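Lecture notes, part 5. Sequence design as translation. It can be helpful to think of inverse folding as translation between two languages: the language of shapes and the language of residues. The source text, in structure tokens, appears below.
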């Protein structure tokens, strides 16, 4: 997977963190296929992204055997999961920092 594709996928995942839409993931799956399934499966296993059940379902819908060997699959397609993870985590943190503060309930 080339760096530009990986960056585009990471940016999609960052944007989806707070505006999650399974239909957009499935539509993007038609474009990115296995890479998106791997990203969805990986993110479903994290404690910081959220949407675990939906991401698991999306991953399986796009690529049924995604859970069998996530890390070997990513390695075989040269999808750098550690870099992807870092990029998405940093992007999510930056988004969180830019959000307006929530109003306290009276």
């Amino acid at each position: 997977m080339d760096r530009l594709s990986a960056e585009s996928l990471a940016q999609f995942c960052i944007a989806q963190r707070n505006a999650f839409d399974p239909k957009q993931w499935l539509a993007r799956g038609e474009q990115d296929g296995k890479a998106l399934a791997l990203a969805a499966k990986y993110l479903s296993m994290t404690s910081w992204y959220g949407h675990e059940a939906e991401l698991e379902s999306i991953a399986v819908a796009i690529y049924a055997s995604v859970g069998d060997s996530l890390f070997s699959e990513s390695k075989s397609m040269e999808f750098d999961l550690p870099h992807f993870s870092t990029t998405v985590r940093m992007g999510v943190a930056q988004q969180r920092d830019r959000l307006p503060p929530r109003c306290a309930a009276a």
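The translated text above is only one of many valid answers, since several sequences can fold into similar shapes. The chain has a mean pLDDT of 88.
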